[in-house]
Amino acid sequence: MAETDITYLLVDAQMIQDTARFKMDLFSGLERVLHGKIKPMITQCSIRHLYTLSVPQSTKDPLILLAKSMERRRCNHHELDDPLSTLECLSSVVDPKKSKTNRNRYVVASQDDEVRRFCREAKGVPLIYVKRSVMVLEPMAERTIDVKEGIERDKFRTGLRARLGKRKRESKEDKDAETEDRPAREVANGDGRDGEEIVVKRKKTRGPKGPNPLSVKKSKKEKVEVQQNDEQLSNLAGKKPEDRLEDTAGIIEQASDGAQAPLGKRKRKRKHKPGLLNGPRQELAGDDESSP
């Protein structure tokens, strides 16, 4: 898991005592409340508070072992003869510069009311405490809610500024399109530049593209004419050269006269050979003369 997915959590001595008294698993309970991996930390002052408890040693030792299993957060108060209170120690760790800001993004698990009251005044400090053997994540503080709403308003304004900037660019492009109709060269007047020619760069305007002519549906009239012409050409292909010349001449004459009517098939005249045409008739005439 990435380092940014781990939650850094500060635990005080009273939280360790209460979870042990309620026989709760501290680490698993914190992970369940925060829905992720945690890195529990304890200050040097809190460990010293556990050593000074007025309880039997058999009860004290498990608490000290649990505290030692956590990472030690240095508060630089170990040089003092007596440890500082929980409020003074945790406040110096969470907000060392008194700027009311959770600079290191700690989650605080504390049973001390004064500590939780101090953390509510700082921005972005999640609080966890135990109440009647139930671990609770405290709702967001009012100060944190105000900061969150301010950030959301800033994001909204940033989006509006971006939209306004886009509109300004669009209006500028419209003005550039208007200047394209002007002549390419203008003569400057005034400013001591009489007679100079200023070259105005033209910007090409690309209008809406037309449809693909191959994908456009043709009209029925054109389709019928094309089909009839194809039929005529196919009929010409199967004819003899002499007949083909006659038919093509007729098609050309109709096209030159501007005739819009569809071209039909020319009626073919049947040609007979002279021998076949005169022979039967002569035989019939001879039979008539010989008949009585």
Describe the structure in your own words.
- With 292 residues, the chain is of the alpha/beta class.
- It has 10 helices and 8 strands.
- A 6-stranded mixed beta sheet has the order 3-2-1-4-5-6, sandwiched between helices. Strands 7-8 form a two-stranded antiparallel ribbon.
- β4, α6 (113-121) and β5 (127-131) form a beta-alpha-beta unit.
- The longest helix has 37 residues, at 142-178.
- It is elongated, with a radius of gyration of 51 Å.
- It starts with 6 loop residues before the first strand and ends with a helix.
Q: Strand-residue fraction?
A: 5-15%
Main β-sheet, spatial strand arrangement: 3-2-1-4-5-6
H/E series: EHHEHHEHEHEEHEEHHH
| Mean pLDDT over the residues | 76
Tally of separate helices: 10
- What's the total count of β strands? 8
Tell me the helix content: 40-55%
pLDDT < 50 runs, ≥5 residues: 183-197, 259-263, 287-292
Instruction: Kindly report the oligomeric state of this protein.
Output: single chain
Radius of gyration from the CA trace?
A: 51 Å
Largest sheet: 6 strands, mixed
Shape descriptor? elongated
**What is the rounded distance between the termini?**
132 Å
Structure classification: alpha/beta
